[in-house]
Amino acid sequence: MSIVGFTVAFKHSLLLFHRKSIREIIKIIERDYEAAIGFTAEEKDTVLKHAQLGTSICKFWVIVAFITSMMFPVKSIVLMGYYLVKGEFKLVPLMDLSYPFINDYKNIPVIFGILFFSCFCFAVYAATAYIAFDPLVPVIVAHTCGQLELISNRLLKVFVNGKNMEEINENLKDINIKLVEIYRIIDTVQKNFVVLYEFMMKTTTFLISFSAFQIVEGAKHNGISVEFVSFFFGAILHFYSPCYFSNLLMDKSEQLRQAIYSCGWELQPNIRTRKCILLMLTRTTKSVVIRTVFMPICLDTFAELPGGWAMGALASSSLHIRQPAITID
User: Fold this and answer.
1) 248-to-25, 28, 30, 234 alpha-carbon distances in Å
2) For the packed helices 19-35 and 41-86, what is the interaxial angle rounded to 10 degrees?
3) Which residues pair with 291 in a beta bridge?
4) How does pLDDT run across 19-38, given as a tens digit for each residue?
């Protein structure tokens, strides 16, 4: 839980520290949605599709964060109620932790109530932090992917729909201005959260391993660690979500590069137009992707996760972390 606590505090501090740049990105997204009112039906569908993708990940995180955080207090309260009905009442902690100085007194009703309330507040705070932060970058990336798809489609028609060379150059200018804005958004996200994502990639691997270890230990003691099952799948989503959206961004940037090359520039004799296309090709040679300090975040990175699980499981076994599950007779 110390890893979760530090991660939540780190995310909260980043949101506060980078609130100005995040606010600017949100304003750009709102302006893009307002501009979409005048788009064609096909372009509106593209914007709507990626907006719904961002909405879906927000709803998914609300459900996952709520279930994962509330599973701990619900299980504790249900078990205490069961033991009370059975006539063998005993206190069941929300999180079975060891405390310095007060560990011998944690089952005293007053101390137990204070600890229970503190852990419950932490669970609520962690849930709200995950709901507020984790969908943020995927929503921004989903929007930029939609904008890159719009630009790709416009590039394929830029020479066909242009009535004269002046209009073609003007359209290319608008496309380049929008591309600069998109790259600025991605650079801002990269700069703001590069250290956090490096931290998340490492710690989430151990969280998955530790929760899997707790599930196995619970099964050995004829108990079902329901709360760690939900925690396990939540940790996987925590790792998979940025990998999926960053990989989608990489695919859309490659699609843009192919669109630039296939737009029909070789049939245009105008030197200015050819230079513009050449600069765009040069800029898009390297795929756009969210990176950590040492590696890109993509589905290939997620595919390497099982190796991290094995290392985490070995670490858990070597530390002999055992938390017997509470069973119902």
Assistant:
1) 19, 20, 21, 21
2) 130
3) 296
4) 899 999 999 999 999 988 88
Which tens digit of pLDDT belongs to each residue from 169-223? 888 888 888 898 999 999 999 888 888 888 888 888 777 877 777 777 767 766 6
Beta bridge partners of 123: none
Token couple for 47:
């914007």
Closest C-alpha to 325, from 215, 229, 211, 234: 215
Distances in whole angstroms, Cα of residue 296 to Cα of each of 58, 130, 279, 309: 23, 22, 25, 19
Residue boundaries of the structural domains of the chain:
2-319
Which of helix, strand or coil describes residue 225?
Answer: coil
Q: Do residues 63 and 69 lie in contact, with contact meaning Cβ atoms separated by under 8 Å?
A: no
Query: Is this structure's pTM higher than 0.85?
Result: no
The tally of CA atoms less than 13 A away on the side-chain side of residue 88 is 6
* Token pair recorded at residue 262: 């296939």
Ramachandran region, residue 87 (left: φ > 0; alpha: ψ -120 to 50; beta: rest):
left
- What residues form DSSP beta bridges with 296? 291
Half-sphere exposure of 213 (CA within 13 A, CB side): 21
What token pair was written down for 184?
């600025």
